[in-house]
Amino acid sequence: MMLASLISAIFTQSLTFLPLALGISISYSLLRATDMTLDGSFVLGAAVFARLVTLGISPVIAGLCALIAGSLAGVMVSFIQRGGRVDPLLAGVLATFILTSGNLALMGRPNINLLTQHTLVSTAFAQSNLAGWSLVALYSLSFCLISCLLVRSRFGLMLRALGDNPALLKRLGTPVETYRLLGFALTNSLAAVSGILTAQTVGYADVGMGFGMTLTGIGAIILGQQILRAMLKRTTLRVAAEFSACVIGVLLYFFAMNGLLRCDINPVYLKMILGIILIIFLRSAVNPNQKRAQS
Amino acid sequence: MKKLTQLLITLLCVAALASCDQKKPSEITIGIIEPLEHTAMNEIVAGFSDTLKQLYHQPVRIKVENAQSDANLQRAIIQKMHDANYDMIIPIGVGASQMSLAMVRDQPIVSLASDLSDSTRQQLHPCNVAVVHDEISAKQLIAFVHAVYPQLTHLMLIHSAADKVFPEVTETIAAGKAVGITVDHLMVATLPELYNSAQSIPAQTQAILVLKDSLIVSGISTLAKLAADRHLPLITSDQGSVQDGAAFSLGVHERQIGVEGAKLAAAVLNGQSICNLPVVNMEKLTVFVNPNALQKDSQTLAPIQTAADQMHYTIEMTKTGV
Fold first, then answer.
1. How many CA atoms lie within 13 A of B224 on its CB side?
2. How confident is the model at residue B321 (pLDDT cuts 50, 70, 90)?
């Protein structure tokens, strides 16, 4: 019974986090950029959705607007980086600064309560938790699937080329900035999807709810990639494997967190123990031959 | 690969150990969620635990879990308490209360220091929450400040971007306007910004006001130094900030929030319907004074004492302080 509830906790927490992790994965593995804007876009999605829903606008329209707002945040960060004039990491930090104020201005107050609002999933949750989470899973996995299909297409190939060698791509006459813009729009809209789903499942949107999400996501996807590489005995991963790595990383992160909590570990020490476990896990997962091959 | 399989098996064993936090059938288990580490939170928890022991005589196990400002962790803690069938969940603060209400529908919740209104509570299906508010009204605070300093016309309110503070800022400005005080406000988003932002307060400022705002209160020593340098009274709304260097405050004993929460919890455990319990507001206000800080700010105790007597507030001198 407790094992079933543990598995349920891991899956429900992973579902809302997965689009954000996939966004981070695309940004980190394809575009080769640590896009810190995703923390802000996560909140932006939740903020726009919550604000519009409380103004009486249909949750579907509110969701679409939040999605567009997320992609606009991506457009903004790509404009900051345009022409390589600002370092990608700095551009992300600057965009996050802007979004911190912007989100607050947009919400009008730091916290919007959604507990009594009609949302995209409220009717399903009113019927049963299973129905509610099934709907959340449908939304989350649909967006992830669409993104994976995009990444598998020529568009994804161009994004990968942009991350690997932007100079060569430019010399070949490809509109580098357009692809950068579209890439960041995609990753940030995925973060917004995560924010929208999180706000609905936790009952509120809050300006501080994105704090540390990107770092957690980066940790989870690196973990997943290392494990999958070790399992497949490959140094590079294809798109499906990259997505699988993302899922594995997120599931393992929430598995470790929930498992340790349920073993009565004091949350104050939880992250330290979590870090040590993951280091041991990674050191065991990657064999020395593979590391040599990678280097 | 072999090692990896071994590790996966180990992790599955961890999962099997998940049952180690199961409650004993004979005892009542109550889970308290602290969103972050804060002295005020510990006071609330202490007040709750001590009072519940006095009011409810069955064996009770109280588990306090600190989410350290991490939303994922807070969510996992609430989920754990829900899955382990805790008899009651006690979230402290607005965010933790909202998250608990969204995730827990079949266990009673006593929400402490949150702004959940009775009408919101009644709209919940099922209604499974009792509430203790912790804020004092802006009108009361401004009326007291006005009584202490009748000549005061320019007050600087320094606040953070915390969710519960925003409506209070608006109320404070309106309350100030009603008694002829212009309340200028300065928002500080993060603690490192406090020093630089505070340096820019206008010259006409006659006093600095801080609401019950954990971010600003955690940097109160910065403001205490500024107040001492500019000979301005630093007025706050909680007990802890006065111990840490503010001149005086009008507020409640944090412990009392826990005490009121324990009364609600005991009533629920004794079989009362949770939804019929009234929303508790903190009404017994105390004036906390730090004589050392008051002296540093070039202020005297006399007007505070007179105003407190007039308004029937108890005065309490801090034993520790700057």
1. 24
2. very low
Confidence of residue A200 (pLDDT cuts 50, 70, 90): very high
In percent, how much of chain B has pLDDT > 70? 90
* Contact call for A5 and B123, based on CB within 8 A: no
Question: Which domains does chain B carry?
Answer: 2-135+255-276 (3.40.50.2300), 138-252+284-317 (3.40.50.2300)
Q: Which helix (H) or strand (E) holds A244?
A: helix A239-262
pLDDT digit string, tens, across residues A77-93: 998 887 767 888 888 88
> Which of B6-10, B161-165, B177-181, B250-254 shows the lowest per-residue confidence on average (mean pLDDT)?
B6-10
Q: How far apart are CA B111 and CA B97, in angstroms?
A: 6
Q: Is the sign of the CA dihedral A197, A203, A204, A208 positive or negative?
A: negative
> How close, in Å, is residue A209 to chain B by CA atoms?
6
Q: Do B75 and A13 touch (CB under 8 A)?
A: yes
Both structure tokens of A173: 């006459």
Per CB-CB distance under 8 Å, the chain B contacts of A116 are 120, 123-124
DSSP B262: H
Q: What is the CATH number of the domain that holds A136?
A: 1.10.3470
Provide the domain count of chain A. Answer: 1
| Each residue's pLDDT tens digit, A29-38 | 888 887 888 8
Give dist(CA B129, CA B144) in Å, integer: 33
Beta-carbon contacts of A142 under 8 Å, excluding residues fewer than 6 positions away, are: none
SS3 B113: coil
Question: What is the gyration radius of the CA atoms in chain B, in angstroms?
Answer: 22
Residue B7: pLDDT above 70?
A: no
CB contact under 8 A, A260 and B14: yes
Q: Do B80 and A258 touch (CB under 8 A)?
A: yes
Domain that holds residue A241: 2-294
ipTM of the complex: 0.79
Q: How far is the alpha carbon of A59 from chain B, nearest alpha carbon, in Å?
A: 18
- Min Cα distance B203 → chain A (Å) is 27
